[in-house]
Design brief:
The protein has 383 residues and is of the alpha+beta class. The chain has helices at residues 3-14, 92-103, 127-142, 149-164, 171-178, 220-238, 251-256, 261-286, 289-306, 312-323, 349-363, and strands at 20-29, 41-42, 44-57, 62-67, 74-78, 111-117, 183-188, 193-198, 207-212, 328-332, 339-344, 369-372, 380-381. The radius of gyration is 21 Å and the shape is globular. Bound molecules: adenosine-5'-diphosphate (ADP) and magnesium ion (MG). It catalyses: alpha-D-galactose + ATP = alpha-D-galactose 1-phosphate + ADP + H(+).
Length: 383
């Protein structure tokens, strides 16, 4: 769909033209899982799939939001009435973005907003961050606030933490706002230092296959919270600010100080995962994709065996991809399903995808969706 068609859909809904159209992409994380809330490192890239919003300011305090992926209705609330939990359902995401700006002291008008997103929901590709980042960038530009993008990412995180009530880290929002086309983003989530790492898969004769496992999970939120609390407990017991501060070379000494096996496993994942992000960034820069593939696969084993956030569907996709000759594969995102990424030569994709599909069918699992992606641009104004 073109930018004009989003504007036309807005006009059909609200009877006037929008002031602009913005888009913010979903993301896939190459490596660095559950490291962001441990002040650690991540290496995501933006996807071509994005949330697009057409927006116009209003003369009053009313906000009206509509989603092409919603139930067809328009949700209404006022800026003045916003407080955590005040808007339920999907509209909590745009409401949270407006709430955080108001909390920051920016006077806000009302808005009419139409959303249309092709980032699948709940697949670990960050449809929620894409939606909030699109709203925040649109407000920033329309109101001339001039908020730097890493700060907008922090605001989006706060909106999701404190308004929506999801204890997420800052990776998804930063990826959506700060990624550039043709590059992965190395991010240090402690100080938001970042570096664009060129990633030209096509020139390397490779592809990134993304397998959406379509696992329906009900317990992911609780498990996320539980892992996060475990990491915080380990950091406190070790006397460090965050697990990021545990030296990978002295990991065994640190583990020996922890009282139980569960905390040791959580800590080992985070510390080794941070080291893998640093190594993966070096390997990408050096163009050593074979070694990069091995790091991805090691990252999967760590999620499966130490952090315990994998599931049979993800493990099967990884194993079948490797058996089909992929350079590496791992589950990406928060865990318990979502997507698996596969680094592979293009002529192996068809066999890998069809083997995974038939295995899922034989197990009676939901049919997976397979697609390839190259690193896309971060959030921007379309119209
Ligand atoms: P993820 O971010 O991995 O896709 P989340 O559970 O964090 O999964 O966010 C998904 C939620 O975001 C949806 O359940 C919905 O409430 C909201 N959302 C995202 N995109 C849209 C959209 N286009 N229309 C309505 N709601 C959306
Ligand atoms: Mg999300």
């Amino acid at each position: 769909m073109s930018a004009t068609s989003y504007a036309d859909a807005f006009a059909a809904l609200y009877g006037r033209r929008p002031e602009g159209v913005w888009q913010a992409p979903g993301r896939v994380n190459l490596i660095g899982e559950h490291t962001d809330y441990n002040d650690g490192f991540v290496l995501p890239m933006a996807l071509p799939s994005a949330a697009r919003i057409a927006v116009a300011r209003r003369d009053d305090d009313l906000v009206r939001v509509h989603s092409a992926q919603g139930d067809g209705g328009v949700t209404e609330f006022t800026i003045a009435s916003l407080k955590p939990g005040s808007v339920p359902g999907w509209a909590a995401y745009p409401a949270g973005a407006l709430w955080v700006l108001r909390e920051e002291g920016h006077p806000l008008p009302g808005f009419d907003l139409h959303l249309d997103s092709d980032v699948p929901f709940g697949a670990g590709l960050s449809s929620s961050a894409a939606l909030q980042c699109a709203v925040l960038l649109a407000c920033d530009e329309l109101l001339g606030l001039g908020i730097p993008r890493p700060t907008l990412a922090r605001l989006a995180q706060r909106a999701e933490n404190d308004y929506v009530g999801a204890p997420v880290g800052v990776m998804d929002q930063t990826a959506s706002l700060c990624c550039t086309e043709g590059a992965a983003l190395f991010l240090d989530t402690r100080d938001m230092a970042q570096r664009q790492v060129p990633l030209d898969l096509l020139a390397a004769g490779l592809r990134l296959l993304i397998v959406d496992t379509r696992v329906e999970h009900g317990h992911a939120d609780g498990a996320y919270r539980n892992r996060r609390e475990g990491c915080e407990r380990s950091a406190a017991l070790l006397g460090v600010r965050a697990l990021r501060d545990v030296d990978a070379d002295k990991l065994d000494e640190a583990l020996a100080q922890l009282p139980d096996e569960e905390l040791r496993r959580l800590t080992r994942h985070v510390v080794t995962e941070n080291a893998r992000v640093l190594r993966a960034t070096e390997l990408l820069t050096a163009g050593d994709f074979a070694a990069l593939g091995r790091i991805l696969t090691e990252g999967h084993a760590s999620q499966r065996d130490d952090f315990a956030i994998s599931c049979p569907q993800s493990d099967a996709a990884v194993e079948l991809a490797l058996a089909g000759g992929a350079l590496g594969a791992r589950q990406t995102g928060g865990g318990f399903g979502g997507c698996v990424i596969v680094l592979t030569e293009p002529d192996r994709i068809e066999t890998i995808a069809s083997t995974i599909k038939s295995h899922y069918a034989a197990q009676g699992w939901n049919a997976p969706a397979c697609f390839t992606a190259t690193p896309a641009a971060g959030a921007r104004r379309l119209l």
